[in-house]
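Question: Send over one sample?
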Amino acid sequence: MLDFEEGEVRAGSRVLALFVNPLNVRVLRAHENGPQRLADIKARMGWSAESTLRAAIANLCEAGALTKGDMPDSSHAVATRLSNAGEEMLFVVDVIEEWLARCPTGPISFESEEAKGAVKALAGGWSSTVIRELANRPLTLTELSKAIPDVSHPSLERRLNWMRMTGQIEPVERTGRGTPYIATEWLRHAIAPLSVSGRCERRHMNADSGPITDVEVEAAFLLALDLVPLPPYASGRCLLAAQTELEPLGTDPHLAGVSLTVENGEITSCTTDLSGDPPTWAMGSAEAWLEAVIDGRMEGLRIAGANPQLALDLVAGLHLALFPARSLP
């Protein structure tokens, strides 16, 4: 798994980092058809050493994805089986795999070193808040280091290099010192695996998960909204906001999100400044937003104002852009 520095754990980063190792994916999927003994898993894996398999199984048990028990047909054989968390983690794996298939240089197999590097880069960029800082403007390494003082300069450089080499960020020209980087369209689509990883943690690993704060909410909106298809008649101003958890934990929740302007189906401005009185809005808890974006279920959101259709189009557009396979025809 990824080694997190102090202060780096963000919502979704622990589940995502679990699948940096493709063996964890294979072991988890080996349980899709029911409980498995170690010998059964070893026969299925073929090449893996028993000690390596034991370590992967122990890792998944510690994460809550697998539980131990007796085989249904034998009181003497110990087996592992999927927990409720493991069932949801299989969905996370499927979404990561769909994201890997979108790689602009060609689909990436989950079994490959390229996949390991891509998932590691995504988890590192998310946990260190590099993704949030690059979500709405180009930044150089020096500028990132100033914006993220809690993460060491060498660690930021390492994460930036991972993201650049895997095609999640790209350089842009600018007068002055340093090379600024921006998010690629592929990184914008990564909000899908980050969302399902975050929801999985909220449901099954809440004690070990990072809180959903302004960082996660703002990064998700700023990156994903660029992908949203809108009808040509869509116009107006709208607020999209979620209740977040302030750090440190225990403080009152507040709203974070974006205020945006749409003209003839195009988003012309988008800011995280929520001051002012928006004419239209969509608001709700972080869980309600995850349900809306992942499953297309909007009933948990409060949508109101002068032009509720604009808010509906934006929320539906986020679901369609990130989870097209789960959208109704």
Q: What stands out?
A: The first strand starts at residue 66 and ends at 70. Residues 247-251 have pLDDT under 50 and may be disordered. The chain is about 45% helix and 15% strand. The domain at 13-188 is CATH 1.10.10.10 (Arc Repressor Mutant, subunit A).
